[in-house]
Every structure is written in structure tokens, then in C-alpha cells.
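hey m, so remember when u said the C-alpha cells were messed up on ur end? i reran from scratch. heres the input so u can diff it against urs
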Amino acid sequence: MVFPIFHLPLLIIISLVLIFLGISVYFREKKSITHKAFLFLALSILLWIAALYISDHPAFTSQALFWNKATVAAGFLMGLFLLYLVLVFPEKELSISLFWKIVLVISGVISCLSLFTDLIVKDVEFYSWGTNIIGGRLFLFSVIWSIFNMGAAAWAGIRKLKNSIGIERTQFKFLLT
């Protein structure tokens, strides 16, 4: 299988930018829950990108299943931390309702199920272009949950955007973009 020569350098550049953004925002105000949430979002995106790349470049075919599971699990973490960031932004301390806490916990559980069981990713298929997952018994539920999670993040963000003014409004526009 031949991959364009720019994939790995591009992955490295994106990874460095994510690390720089996440760490620089975090160190601007370490105690801020929003800054911590942004760092976790950046790290989950980094994990997803790396796992996605490795899943299609396994050194041994026996590793393909693990890396595909890691890709799916990291995707759920991205959704979890995006929703979390939208819910806590621009606060400095945690204050979200029990409903949203339950949604976040379910997302975390699905991420763990993705990585450690065959309920979401049962196996992989190999193609000339890489690998493709074979869904487990909870695969459809996980897809529906992922759509719900992203929709909830968009809904909460748009709702907060409508109620924000000034610099906070501009920051929400960037976040939603």
C-alpha cells in the first residue's frame, strides 16, 4: 500500500499545533475549568489523529483491531470533551446540571466499551487503502449516541452564543466553528 509522502509530516505538524494550543491555553490560567476542558479536547483530538493514522499503518496485522478500537474510543472522547467545553465555557469553575453530567458519563462509558470490549468494534477488514471496522452489537447505538452528543454540543453552544455579548460572543463563534 502506497501512502502520499505528506501524510506523516502533516500529522506531525497538526499534532505539534494541537499540543501548543492546548498547553498554551491551559497555562494561561491553570485553575480555569474552561482551559482544562480545552486542553483535554486538544489531547483527545491528538489521540484520535494518531490512532487513526496508526490503525491504517499497523506494523503487524494483529495490532489493527486495537488501533481501530482506539480510534473509535478517542472519537467518543472528542465528543465528550467538546460537549464538556461548550457546557463549562466561559466559567472558571464547574457548574453543569445532573442531566449533562449523566450524558458525559455515558460518553465516557461508551469510549471505554469501544476500547476494551467487542460490543462496539468487533473486528476489522483489510483493504488496499487501510482497514475498516466491523461493528459489534452496540455499534448502531454508539453511532446514534455520537450524533446525539455532537448535536447536544451544537445546541448548547448555539444557545449560549445567543445569550452572549462582547468578547465572549466572539469566543463562542470561534469555538462553534
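this time it looks ok to me. The beta strands are 121-127, 130-135. if urs says something different then somethings off w ur setup not the seq
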